[in-house]
Amino acid sequence: xxxxxxxxxxxxxxxxxxxxxxxxxxxxxxxxxxxxxxxxxxxxxxxxxxxxxxxxxxxxxxxxxxxxxxxxxxxxxxxxxxxxxxxxxxxxxxxxxxxxxxxxxxxxxxxxxxxxxxxxxxxxxxxxxxxxxxxxxxxxxxxxxxxxxxxxxxxxxxxxxxxxxxxxxxxxxxxxxxxxxxxxxxxxxxxxxxxxxxxxxxxxxxxxxxxxxxxxxxxxxxxxxxxxxxxxxxxxxxxxxxxxxxxxxxxxxxxxxxxxxxxxxxxxxxxxxxxxxxxxxxxxxxxxxxxxxxxxxxxxxxxxxxxxxxxxxxxxxxxxxx
Length: 322
Prior knowledge:
With 322 residues, this protein is of the alpha/beta class. It has helices spanning 2-12, 14-32, 37-57, 77-88, 103-110, 123-138, 164-184, 186-192, 212-233, 257-267, 270-276, 279-288, 302-313, and strands spanning 67-71, 92-97, 114-117, 143-149, 195-199, 238-242, 320-321. Helix 2 (14-32) runs antiparallel to helix 3 (37-57) and helix 7 runs parallel beside helix 9 (212-233).
């Protein structure tokens, strides 16, 4: 265990270690150069103050079972993995799942994670989910520590191919759904001074062909998060964006991609079929290689969890963690 802790410790406190080394070297130089002890002492106090201030910024919260962490989109991938991870950290976790009878829901329940149905495109489902969170906080005496907005849909395909339903689904889940879930929980968030963590994407900053709609939703989500962070700061509510990187092979986010391609082909206009010729077929073949539904997996990249822990636990969190 200690062998695994040291690399994480060195990474997290690398800045402080560099400062410490620089301070020691500088003071040794001043001493050898003949500076008065008063000058060296004054500089030492200033530099120690800087190091103390740095460590204060790195202070982290300690979780216990009274803390409630709510996570959306826990049927697979990152949401499923974070639900198990937060449970292991000692918090009480409520996982929103689209399929309450699925394997993820079963595994989470077996791990003592609370599971509740949540369809972020359905207003009634969102309201029921919000009422259940209120019940946990009022009747079970939990404090809502964090809402982690993770639910997301990604559909590959050039914009001209995507159907109206494809566009609406990505906007509905990624953007509007996130806003609706956050708003339904806002009174609980404000009363508990909870933190809101929005799972973002590098696609919010690097706009990729074939993902124009998905990128648009993530860019809009980023803008919303920035504005919300400023709006809620006066109420001591922290809004944080977390960009986890690529873990497609450990997620089922592309599980329905073949279905989406079939829908695109059926809806394509005759002139489009002629214009794109075999390009569409080659495109489908290429992306079908990474599509498809795998067995339920946990994200294994330890660096994702390390950075996420900072977003979740830092007393003075940054606006963005990558």
